[in-house]
Amino acid sequence: MKLAERVEEVKSNIKRLYAEDDLPWIIGYSGGKDSTAVLQLVWHSIAEIQADKRQKKIYVISTDTLVENPIVAKWVELSLMRINAESAKQEMHIEAHRLVPKLEDRFWVNLIGKGYPAPRPKFRWCTSRLKINASTEFIRTVASETGEAILFLGTRSAESAARKKSMERHHGSTRDLLSKNSDPRLDRVWVFPPIADWTNDDVWEYIIENENPWGHSNTELFHLYRGASPDAECPLVVDSNTPSCGDSRFGCYVCTMVDKDKSLSAMIKNDDDKKWMLPLAEFREKRLPTDDDFPNRDFRRLDGRIDIFKRGGEPELIHGPYKKAYRESLLRDLLIAQTEIRRNAPPGLEGFEIITMEELEEIRRVWIEEKHEIEDSLPGIYGEATGEEYPVDSEERHSIFTQEDLAELRDICMSTDDPDHIHYSMLREMLAVEQDYRGATRRVGIYDDLMRSLKQHAFLNRDQALEYKLTMKDQSWVVEDAILDTFDEEDAAVSSGEKGSSV
User: What are the pLDDT digits (tens) for 226-253?
Assistant: First the structure.
């Protein structure tokens, strides 16, 4: 079938679906070639319907993880603005939305704030937090208002074997052209992939030969893709079956699923105007953790527990979150990179943010309130890295202890047998617990909290913890492969990538 015939067939199906009911449509849009083709097909189809009969609500959603390739992120942001402007002008009833993760789900808050280990193939905590949650919440809200909704996706069976397999699971329409969504949270959402059987060449030919109806340049899009691999688009991710951006041309520049962000590197290498992004690429290559990050991680779980698994028959501790010093060094280098980028950025990008002030304040809160790191070191790190005074003064976070007090306490606790300052951390946390209860009328719970701190700091190092666990008569502590795979997200986030043989 020729491309022109394919196009007419898709447009005919779209117009038939449009006239069938009043269900709202949701179009997943990443700004890449496939989602651009889908939105163009929908736009051109609806434009052929009389204006007084265009009543259906159509939502275009694009999820910005806030760690996207900066050039692509700006491209998409501008495209969404043009979509809304042209939709109003042409009476299309198309409404574009830029979605972002909740503050607690954002990449830097979890990596630097909570100390989650960098995402890895066996555990991608980033996919759900940065992409799935935001889009799923929006889609569920739309579907709940009308009972059902139809989700248009730019997935293609020709793109890759993995994506083809995922699409085959959706196949078996219960409603003519539509398939049921595999995610139980979206059980009232139908899925329609209008270009499922198109080839890569079909997509490019269509968007190059057909003018973009909202005024974005498809020729510029082609230049962004030049030299890309066949799997070249970061799709809208709405469930765990949808491939993340790890193997894609455009995606999160922080992605640790791949050895190198080829798109960012290529842009910097081939275009002098994009060399301002070099500090970003260098931070990603040199500072983002890899699988070999155990020395920088606590030997205790996030909640202080100690668990063991067996690798090759040998018992090992399940490593926990990143240590305080390592988290601080990551933040310092990230802010240095941001400062350098701002210094060399082109006009209009002088205020470019790798990490937002909102995220910095949340990291600060996590360090002080959840990790009891009452030194409140973030403002000082900010000043060292940027040469500027930290702009937020949170009076309620001020400790009754001065930096000199804490330094003296640290010196008293110093020991060659305590390289990670466990004694100091314990006393600091117990002081923070006591301070939290100072204003309470009834101090119910303080002894439980203090005892919990004592237990969590019972060992000075991993060798002591491992030896203790091995002497326990009850062997139920041994974590098996199957259990490692079924930990809830909070636990898995501090035990990922450490699978051994089951016991």
Answer: 633 334 344 445 554 444 443 335 678 7
Closest CA to 63 of 149, 158, 128: 128
Q: Name the H helices within 226-277.
A: 262-270
The pLDDT assigned to 101 comes to 96
**Domain presence at residue 96:** yes
- Of 3, 45, 496, the closest CA to residue 289 belongs to 496
- Structure confidence by residue, pLDDT tens digits, 452-503: 999 889 898 888 888 888 887 555 545 444 334 333 344 444 444 343 322 2
Q: How many residues does the chain have?
A: 503
Sequence letter at residue 32: G
Q: Kindly state the tokens that stand for 368.
A: 């002080």
pLDDT tens, residue by residue, 144-175: 998 999 999 998 875 445 445 544 554 544 35
The side-by-side arrangement of strands in the sheet containing 478-479 is 314-317, 308-311, 478-479
Question: Rounded to the nearest 10 degrees, what angle do helices 422-436 and 446-456 cross at?
Answer: 170
Q: Is residue 328 in a domain?
A: no
> 64-111 pLDDT, tens per residue?
999 988 888 888 999 999 999 999 999 999 999 999 999 999 999 999
**One-letter identity of residue 104:** E
How far is 362 from 390, CA to CA, in rounded Å? 14
In a domain, 41, yes or no: yes
**Would 315 be classed as within a structural domain?**
no
Three-state secondary structure of 265-297: HHHHHHCHHHHHHHHHHHHHHHCCCCCCCHHHE
Token pair 């609806």 in the structure block, residue:
46
What is the sign, positive or negative, of the torsion defined by CA atoms of 346, 60, 358, 367? negative
User: Helix or strand or coil: residue 149?
Assistant: strand
Longest dimension (CA), the chain: 80
What are the C-alpha distances in Å from 167 to residues 170, 187, 192, 249, 443? Answer: 5, 16, 11, 20, 57
Beta-sheet pairing, 149-152 with 189-192: parallel
Evaluate whether 58 touches 24 at the Cβ level (below 8 Å): yes
pLDDT above 90 coverage of the chain, percent: 46
The enclosing domain of 238 has a CATH number of: 3.40.50.620
Residue 122 pLDDT > 50 = yes
Q: What is the domain extent for residue 13? A: 3-242
| Burial zone of 59 (CB within 10 Å; 0-12 exposed, 13-18 middle, 19+ buried) | buried
Q: For residues 403 and 149, is the Cβ–Cβ distance under 8 A?
A: no
Domain total for the chain? 1
| pLDDT, mean of residues 338-350 | 88
